[in-house]
Amino acid sequence: MINITNMRPGPGGTKAIFDVEIDGWTVRECVIVERPDGNLAALPPALRDRRRAVQVPDHLWFDFVNSARSAYRRIRRDEKWGELCEGGEEALEKAGI
């Protein structure tokens, strides 16, 4: 079970920072970033040398990423964090988000 909590806007190029509970373990300070191709990526916290502080198990990775991206889009829309770029609203509707 994956539960996303405490999502808030992030500084600089980070879209959001959030905490996640995965199978009873809480991981704090995960991030949502925008990749160069424009897609959103969810990542566990990083150490100073950019290595990941924790590793999400392979069988939960897909759910971790999708849960985080869905929560980000929902909260961003509900709390009006920013306007979507032109055409973005239509793309989200077509994707069922």
Summarize the structure.
A hairpin with a 2-residue loop joins β2 and β3. The longest helix is centred in the last third of the chain and has 21 residues, at 58-78. The chain contains two helices and four strands; from the N terminus they run ββββαα.
Molecular structure report:
The protein has 97 residues and is α+β, with helices and mostly antiparallel strands. The protein has one domain: Arylsulfatase, C-terminal domain (2-Layer Sandwich), CATH 3.30.1120. Helix content is 29%, strand content 32%. It has helices at residues 58-78, 88-94, and strands at 2-9, 14-22, 25-34, 40-43. The longest helix has 21 residues, at 58-78. The protein starts with a strand and ends with a helix.
- Overall pLDDT level: 81
Main β-sheet, in a few words? 4 strands, antiparallel
Report, as a whole number of angstroms, the end-to-end distance: 21 Å
User: What is the rounded Rg?
Assistant: 14 Å
Lateral strand order in the biggest sheet: 1-2-3-4
Principal-axis shape equals globular
- Count of structural domains: 1
Instruction: Examine the secondary-structure arrangement and name the CATH architecture.
Output: 2-Layer Sandwich
Counting DSSP H or I runs of 4 or more residues, the number of helices is: 2
- Helix percent reads 25-40%
What is the chain-wise order of helices and strands?
EEEEHH
